[in-house]
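Fold these two proteins, one after the other.
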Amino acid sequence: NIALIYGNLGDKTKQLTFNKKCLHITQTLNQPIQTIKILNNIGHAYFELEQLEKAATIFKNNLEHPHLTPDLKAVSLKNLTKVYLKQENYTKARLVQKATETSVKKHQLIKYLIAFDYLFCAILLGEGNFKSAVNYLKKAVDTLDKKGILRKELRVMMEVYLKGLTEINDKQNLKYYFKKYIALNKELNSAFSNQTTKNLQFQFEINEIEKERVFLANQNEELQFANAKIVSQKKDLEIKSIQLQSVNQKLTEFAHIIAHDLKQPIRTINSFTYLLERDLKDQLSKNSLAYMQF
């Protein structure tokens, strides 16, 4: 969705960046159909950025994909035709357009027929066959105008059609369809104005999301730093705890040794005190005898 929004805003570089991120996700999740769709979007972004060789490579690779559906095949063929037209390689464009037409008719993909009529007319115009292009394109323009669908595509077709009418100097049709073109432009410009407002809203929302992302990234960085500090302090405490246990063990051993070493002199003193008391009992005062009892 973000890639789509950037596309609507005209930022094809960011659109390409986010489409590539989506591609990585779909490939990781093993979603072949979504992968083909996103590759078509990436190829279209390259096309808009005038990186035509990269665009052509992607569309060609898509046509070789084992999970390619008729619908996605039609899209890839259409996009590849547009690349060849942009490169003014009308021979390849005609070959791909013919393959496209065959595939579309075989699978009854009606919604693509008009688009390929336009591409075929663009090829005819590029080859200088203006009269055939005008006759062929008139049917597509009238069909779209009557049904009231694909208005943007109709405007593009009308521009090509008017160019063809100018080349063959068909003043009557040129006047009639130019009025239709003016009316269609007003209609689309009104819609464009509404879309511009929505795009501005999208841009604001994207900016807010980006600010929130930066804030969260900074918060995450601070949390990681704090966590690393806590881990480091924990390790220091563990080391100090081990050192303290070692010191306590040594103190216990020292106290045991001291206690053992002090017992022998005390026993000796007690023994001699007893002997003195026994031998001198009659000669000592009551206080002296009392002292010797301690």
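Now the second one:
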Amino acid sequence: FLIRVGIRKNKIQLLKQTDPPPPTSVEGTAGNTGIGLVHLCNALGFQCHIFMPNNQSKEKVEYLSALGAVIRQFPVAPFNDPNNYNQKAKEFAANTPNAHWTNQFDNVENRRAHIETTGPEIWRQTAGKVDAIVFGVGTGGTLGGCSTFLKEKKKSVKTFLADPQGSVLYNFYKHGRLERTDGSSITEGIGQGRVTDNLKDAPIDEALFVHDNEAVEMTFRLLHEEGFFVGATSGLNVAGAVQVAKLMGPGKTIVTCLCDTGSKYMNRLYSRGELEKRNLLHAVPEKYRAFLKP
């Protein structure tokens, strides 16, 4: 979806990789979208340039490098700062022949993908009995797209935004203020300092605040009690779904997603030393702490 709009608008030409200049996809990403993008670029014969903030897990950087992406990392900066990693990606694409900035945050083809795929998948798999959806937000594409599709199918479906520490979206949807909640989060790729185009005008009913304590505890419960090896963003999603279940009561079908794998966070989320540094070791149920990396 993100690449095809560049082809359709003739921003990128489908040349052979050996023809100059080679087709190039450029993206600013915390890592996970970039991993998907470089897989697709490899299949299409494109080059892939990834621009990242320098606070993401080492495993994601190594993963992208192994896949063949050209990686550039930048200090964390506000979105409108010219040194922000997204602004750097945009600038690079504009100055590189036959390159396209996929712009996952504000390219509404992202939302369209979930209107056409994820939303219908939820509808089919629940046989239309879905009562609520709950998602954390990075670009806003998943929540924006799924809420748009499902509300059109069934107006009574409730849509919830689950927000981590340090993001503005909880306060925006609860109080109308772009004001960050306290602290920073161990989660990666979610939380925002603005409302993206993929999220604008999406039919969001309610926002939930999910503390890192809840997300970390749920992440380890998912691993040791359910057999799902996931990252903290997935833990946050499920913790948010539990909040919604308590709000709505028994007998409801509540949908969220497990959106990342734990293997990309071994030196952060699954590290005793890192959890101690972040004052989060206590959030891991005591019987599961023996399995942490030192």
